[in-house]
# Entry
Amino acid sequence: MNELTPAAAACLVGERGGFRWFHVEDTKGPALDGLAAHFGLHELAVEDCRHLGQRAKVEEYEGHIFVVANAIHFDKGKLGCWLGEVDFFVGKDFLISIREGTSKTFEATLPKFKTDHRLAHPGRLLMAMLDFMVDQYLPVLDTIEDQIEGLEEEVLVNPSPALLSRIFDLRRALIDYRRSALAMREVLNHLLYRTEQHFRSQQAYFRNIYDHVVRALDFVETYRDLLNGVLDVHLSATANRTNDVMKVLTVFATLATPFLLITSFYGMNFDYLPLLHSPRGAIIATVGMLVVSLTMLAFFRRKHWI
# Structure
Protein backbone atom coordinates (compact mmCIF):
# COMPACT_ATOMS: atom_id res chain seq x y z
CA MET A 1 0.00 0.00 0.00
CA ASN A 2 1.44 3.37 -1.03
CA GLU A 3 1.79 6.24 1.41
CA LEU A 4 -0.85 8.93 1.35
CA THR A 5 0.10 11.89 -0.80
CA PRO A 6 -0.23 15.39 0.72
CA ALA A 7 -3.26 16.11 -1.49
CA ALA A 8 -4.94 12.89 -0.37
CA ALA A 9 -4.09 13.47 3.29
CA ALA A 10 -5.70 16.92 3.07
CA CYS A 11 -9.01 15.22 2.28
CA LEU A 12 -9.07 13.37 5.61
CA VAL A 13 -12.24 14.39 7.43
CA GLY A 14 -11.64 12.41 10.59
CA GLU A 15 -10.05 9.30 12.04
CA ARG A 16 -11.37 7.34 14.96
CA GLY A 17 -10.66 3.81 16.17
CA GLY A 18 -8.72 2.90 13.03
CA PHE A 19 -11.54 4.11 10.76
CA ARG A 20 -10.86 6.99 8.38
CA TRP A 21 -13.25 9.15 6.39
CA PHE A 22 -12.01 11.05 3.34
CA HIS A 23 -14.06 13.53 1.33
CA VAL A 24 -13.02 14.73 -2.15
CA GLU A 25 -14.56 17.81 -3.79
CA ASP A 26 -12.25 18.04 -6.82
CA THR A 27 -12.62 14.93 -8.95
CA LYS A 28 -10.08 16.20 -11.49
CA GLY A 29 -7.38 16.95 -8.89
CA PRO A 30 -4.51 14.81 -7.55
CA ALA A 31 -6.28 13.88 -4.30
CA LEU A 32 -8.40 11.19 -5.93
CA ASP A 33 -5.33 9.69 -7.62
CA GLY A 34 -3.50 9.63 -4.30
CA LEU A 35 -6.37 7.88 -2.54
CA ALA A 36 -6.72 5.41 -5.43
CA ALA A 37 -3.06 4.49 -5.17
CA HIS A 38 -3.15 4.20 -1.36
CA PHE A 39 -6.30 2.06 -1.08
CA GLY A 40 -6.02 0.22 -4.40
CA LEU A 41 -9.22 1.66 -5.84
CA HIS A 42 -10.22 0.22 -9.17
CA GLU A 43 -9.41 2.44 -12.15
CA LEU A 44 -12.85 2.00 -13.73
CA ALA A 45 -14.55 3.25 -10.57
CA VAL A 46 -12.17 6.20 -10.38
CA GLU A 47 -13.00 7.02 -13.98
CA ASP A 48 -16.73 6.93 -13.17
CA CYS A 49 -16.13 9.48 -10.41
CA ARG A 50 -14.70 11.88 -12.95
CA HIS A 51 -17.60 11.57 -15.38
CA LEU A 52 -20.71 13.10 -13.86
CA GLY A 53 -24.19 11.84 -14.63
CA GLN A 54 -23.75 8.24 -13.47
CA ARG A 55 -26.88 6.38 -12.47
CA ALA A 56 -27.11 4.91 -8.98
CA LYS A 57 -25.33 1.56 -8.79
CA VAL A 58 -23.14 -0.74 -6.69
CA GLU A 59 -19.98 -2.38 -8.02
CA GLU A 60 -17.83 -4.86 -6.11
CA TYR A 61 -14.04 -4.88 -6.23
CA GLU A 62 -11.38 -6.61 -4.21
CA GLY A 63 -11.15 -5.00 -0.78
CA HIS A 64 -13.86 -2.39 -1.35
CA ILE A 65 -17.15 -1.63 -3.01
CA PHE A 66 -18.05 1.35 -5.15
CA VAL A 67 -21.45 3.02 -4.65
CA VAL A 68 -22.99 5.74 -6.80
CA ALA A 69 -25.95 7.46 -5.12
CA ASN A 70 -28.28 10.10 -6.55
CA ALA A 71 -30.04 12.90 -4.75
CA ILE A 72 -33.09 14.27 -6.59
CA HIS A 73 -33.86 17.98 -6.89
CA PHE A 74 -36.74 19.79 -8.59
CA ASP A 75 -36.48 22.98 -10.65
CA LYS A 76 -39.75 24.93 -10.34
CA GLY A 77 -38.83 27.23 -13.19
CA LYS A 78 -38.21 24.51 -15.76
CA LEU A 79 -40.53 21.96 -14.10
CA GLY A 80 -37.82 19.32 -14.29
CA CYS A 81 -35.84 17.02 -12.03
CA TRP A 82 -32.05 17.06 -11.88
CA LEU A 83 -29.73 14.73 -10.03
CA GLY A 84 -26.99 15.33 -7.51
CA GLU A 85 -24.40 12.57 -7.59
CA VAL A 86 -22.27 11.40 -4.64
CA ASP A 87 -19.84 8.51 -5.05
CA PHE A 88 -18.53 6.27 -2.26
CA PHE A 89 -15.65 3.86 -1.87
CA VAL A 90 -16.33 1.67 1.15
CA GLY A 91 -13.82 -0.68 2.77
CA LYS A 92 -13.69 -2.41 6.12
CA ASP A 93 -11.85 0.51 7.78
CA PHE A 94 -12.39 3.49 5.47
CA LEU A 95 -14.97 5.43 3.52
CA ILE A 96 -14.24 7.88 0.73
CA SER A 97 -17.05 10.19 -0.36
CA ILE A 98 -16.67 12.07 -3.63
CA ARG A 99 -18.73 15.00 -4.88
CA GLU A 100 -17.76 17.57 -7.49
CA GLY A 101 -18.06 20.87 -5.63
CA THR A 102 -19.82 21.45 -2.33
CA SER A 103 -22.11 18.77 -0.98
CA LYS A 104 -25.18 19.28 1.19
CA THR A 105 -24.96 15.63 2.17
CA PHE A 106 -21.41 16.08 3.44
CA GLU A 107 -22.25 19.32 5.26
CA ALA A 108 -25.26 17.70 6.96
CA THR A 109 -23.38 14.55 8.00
CA LEU A 110 -20.12 16.15 9.23
CA PRO A 111 -21.54 17.56 12.52
CA LYS A 112 -23.07 14.19 13.32
CA PHE A 113 -19.77 12.45 12.58
CA LYS A 114 -17.96 14.73 15.01
CA THR A 115 -20.43 14.17 17.84
CA ASP A 116 -21.68 10.62 17.29
CA HIS A 117 -18.94 8.03 17.71
CA ARG A 118 -21.15 5.37 16.16
CA LEU A 119 -20.59 6.98 12.75
CA ALA A 120 -16.91 5.95 12.90
CA HIS A 121 -17.98 2.86 11.02
CA PRO A 122 -18.13 2.37 7.23
CA GLY A 123 -21.62 0.90 7.13
CA ARG A 124 -23.11 3.36 9.61
CA LEU A 125 -21.53 6.41 7.94
CA LEU A 126 -22.67 5.26 4.50
CA MET A 127 -26.14 4.69 5.91
CA ALA A 128 -26.25 8.19 7.41
CA MET A 129 -25.29 9.85 4.12
CA LEU A 130 -27.69 7.77 2.04
CA ASP A 131 -30.44 8.46 4.57
CA PHE A 132 -29.96 12.22 4.17
CA MET A 133 -30.08 11.94 0.37
CA VAL A 134 -33.22 9.80 0.35
CA ASP A 135 -34.91 12.09 2.90
CA GLN A 136 -34.97 14.76 0.17
CA TYR A 137 -37.07 12.55 -2.11
CA LEU A 138 -40.44 13.18 -0.46
CA PRO A 139 -40.09 17.01 -0.26
CA VAL A 140 -39.45 16.97 -4.02
CA LEU A 141 -42.68 15.02 -4.48
CA ASP A 142 -44.52 17.52 -2.26
CA THR A 143 -43.38 20.30 -4.59
CA ILE A 144 -44.54 18.32 -7.61
CA GLU A 145 -47.89 17.71 -5.90
CA ASP A 146 -48.32 21.47 -5.40
CA GLN A 147 -47.64 21.99 -9.10
CA ILE A 148 -50.24 19.37 -10.03
CA GLU A 149 -52.85 20.98 -7.77
CA GLY A 150 -52.20 24.32 -9.47
CA LEU A 151 -52.67 22.70 -12.86
CA GLU A 152 -55.95 21.09 -11.74
CA GLU A 153 -57.36 24.50 -10.85
CA GLU A 154 -56.07 26.22 -13.97
CA VAL A 155 -57.13 23.56 -16.47
CA LEU A 156 -60.80 24.09 -15.62
CA VAL A 157 -60.53 27.86 -16.10
CA ASN A 158 -58.09 28.41 -18.93
CA PRO A 159 -56.92 25.37 -20.92
CA SER A 160 -54.19 26.55 -23.28
CA PRO A 161 -51.17 25.29 -25.24
CA ALA A 162 -48.86 26.75 -22.56
CA LEU A 163 -50.70 24.77 -19.88
CA LEU A 164 -50.44 21.61 -21.98
CA SER A 165 -46.67 22.17 -22.24
CA ARG A 166 -46.43 22.43 -18.44
CA ILE A 167 -48.34 19.16 -18.07
CA PHE A 168 -45.90 17.37 -20.36
CA ASP A 169 -42.92 18.91 -18.52
CA LEU A 170 -44.24 17.54 -15.22
CA ARG A 171 -44.84 14.13 -16.76
CA ARG A 172 -41.25 14.08 -17.97
CA ALA A 173 -40.05 15.13 -14.50
CA LEU A 174 -41.95 12.25 -12.91
CA ILE A 175 -40.44 9.83 -15.40
CA ASP A 176 -36.92 11.08 -14.57
CA TYR A 177 -37.73 10.90 -10.86
CA ARG A 178 -39.02 7.35 -11.12
CA ARG A 179 -35.97 6.21 -13.11
CA SER A 180 -33.59 7.60 -10.47
CA ALA A 181 -35.61 6.27 -7.53
CA LEU A 182 -35.72 2.79 -9.06
CA ALA A 183 -31.94 2.80 -9.42
CA MET A 184 -31.55 3.86 -5.78
CA ARG A 185 -33.93 1.11 -4.72
CA GLU A 186 -31.68 -1.44 -6.43
CA VAL A 187 -28.63 0.02 -4.70
CA LEU A 188 -30.25 -0.30 -1.27
CA ASN A 189 -31.54 -3.76 -2.07
CA HIS A 190 -27.98 -4.78 -2.96
CA LEU A 191 -26.58 -3.33 0.28
CA LEU A 192 -29.29 -5.06 2.32
CA TYR A 193 -28.02 -8.51 1.40
CA ARG A 194 -24.30 -7.97 1.82
CA THR A 195 -22.67 -10.37 4.25
CA GLU A 196 -19.70 -8.27 5.44
CA GLN A 197 -19.81 -7.47 9.15
CA HIS A 198 -19.81 -3.70 8.61
CA PHE A 199 -22.92 -4.05 6.42
CA ARG A 200 -24.71 -6.90 8.15
CA SER A 201 -24.92 -4.94 11.41
CA GLN A 202 -26.67 -2.04 9.59
CA GLN A 203 -29.31 -4.00 7.72
CA ALA A 204 -32.18 -2.62 9.79
CA TYR A 205 -31.14 0.95 8.91
CA PHE A 206 -30.69 0.20 5.22
CA ARG A 207 -34.12 -1.45 5.26
CA ASN A 208 -35.59 1.76 6.67
CA ILE A 209 -34.05 3.80 3.85
CA TYR A 210 -35.26 1.19 1.36
CA ASP A 211 -38.81 1.61 2.68
CA HIS A 212 -38.58 5.39 2.16
CA VAL A 213 -37.63 4.88 -1.49
CA VAL A 214 -40.48 2.41 -2.00
CA ARG A 215 -42.89 4.87 -0.45
CA ALA A 216 -41.64 7.60 -2.78
CA LEU A 217 -42.17 5.31 -5.77
CA ASP A 218 -45.75 4.66 -4.63
CA PHE A 219 -46.38 8.41 -4.56
CA VAL A 220 -44.88 8.74 -8.04
CA GLU A 221 -47.45 6.31 -9.42
CA THR A 222 -50.24 8.24 -7.69
CA TYR A 223 -49.06 11.57 -9.07
CA ARG A 224 -48.70 10.11 -12.55
CA ASP A 225 -52.34 9.05 -12.40
CA LEU A 226 -53.36 12.52 -11.18
CA LEU A 227 -51.38 14.16 -13.96
CA ASN A 228 -52.93 11.86 -16.55
CA GLY A 229 -56.33 12.93 -15.18
CA VAL A 230 -55.36 16.60 -15.58
CA LEU A 231 -54.29 15.87 -19.14
CA ASP A 232 -57.63 14.18 -19.89
CA VAL A 233 -59.52 17.14 -18.43
CA HIS A 234 -57.42 19.55 -20.53
CA LEU A 235 -58.11 17.61 -23.71
CA SER A 236 -61.82 17.40 -22.89
CA ALA A 237 -62.04 21.11 -22.07
CA THR A 238 -60.25 22.00 -25.29
CA ALA A 239 -62.55 19.73 -27.30
CA ASN A 240 -65.64 21.19 -25.61
CA ARG A 241 -64.50 24.73 -26.30
CA THR A 242 -63.87 23.82 -29.93
CA ASN A 243 -67.33 22.30 -30.12
CA ASP A 244 -68.89 25.47 -28.67
CA VAL A 245 -67.10 27.60 -31.26
CA MET A 246 -68.16 25.29 -34.07
CA LYS A 247 -71.76 25.34 -32.80
CA VAL A 248 -71.88 29.14 -32.82
CA LEU A 249 -70.36 29.29 -36.30
CA THR A 250 -72.84 26.70 -37.53
CA VAL A 251 -75.76 28.71 -36.14
CA PHE A 252 -74.53 31.85 -37.87
CA ALA A 253 -74.05 29.96 -41.12
CA THR A 254 -77.55 28.45 -40.85
CA LEU A 255 -79.20 31.80 -40.09
CA ALA A 256 -77.45 33.28 -43.12
CA THR A 257 -78.88 30.58 -45.40
CA PRO A 258 -82.18 32.44 -46.20
CA PHE A 259 -80.21 35.56 -47.15
CA LEU A 260 -77.91 33.58 -49.41
CA LEU A 261 -80.79 31.62 -50.97
CA ILE A 262 -83.05 34.58 -51.78
CA THR A 263 -80.30 36.93 -52.95
CA SER A 264 -78.84 34.24 -55.20
CA PHE A 265 -82.34 33.48 -56.55
CA TYR A 266 -82.89 37.11 -57.54
CA GLY A 267 -79.41 37.27 -58.96
CA MET A 268 -80.48 35.12 -61.92
CA ASN A 269 -80.92 36.89 -65.30
CA PHE A 270 -84.69 36.42 -65.69
CA ASP A 271 -87.06 39.33 -66.14
CA TYR A 272 -90.22 37.58 -64.95
CA LEU A 273 -89.15 36.91 -61.30
CA PRO A 274 -91.74 37.98 -58.67
CA LEU A 275 -91.40 41.53 -57.33
CA LEU A 276 -88.39 42.09 -59.55
CA HIS A 277 -89.67 45.43 -60.85
CA SER A 278 -91.73 46.37 -57.80
CA PRO A 279 -90.56 49.51 -55.91
CA ARG A 280 -91.14 47.66 -52.65
CA GLY A 281 -89.53 44.41 -53.80
CA ALA A 282 -86.23 44.91 -51.95
CA ILE A 283 -88.07 45.76 -48.72
CA ILE A 284 -90.37 42.74 -48.98
CA ALA A 285 -87.44 40.40 -49.75
CA THR A 286 -85.42 41.77 -46.83
CA VAL A 287 -88.34 41.40 -44.41
CA GLY A 288 -88.92 37.87 -45.66
CA MET A 289 -85.30 36.93 -45.12
CA LEU A 290 -85.35 38.37 -41.58
CA VAL A 291 -88.60 36.57 -40.72
CA VAL A 292 -87.22 33.22 -41.89
CA SER A 293 -83.94 33.70 -40.00
CA LEU A 294 -85.68 34.81 -36.79
CA THR A 295 -88.05 31.85 -37.02
CA MET A 296 -85.11 29.51 -37.35
CA LEU A 297 -83.42 31.21 -34.38
CA ALA A 298 -86.56 30.76 -32.24
CA PHE A 299 -86.72 27.12 -33.26
CA PHE A 300 -83.06 26.57 -32.23
CA ARG A 301 -83.66 28.18 -28.85
CA ARG A 302 -86.78 26.10 -28.25
CA LYS A 303 -84.77 22.95 -28.94
CA HIS A 304 -82.02 24.25 -26.61
CA TRP A 305 -79.46 23.97 -29.37
CA ILE A 306 -78.13 27.38 -28.45
Observations:
- The chain has a mean pLDDT of 88.
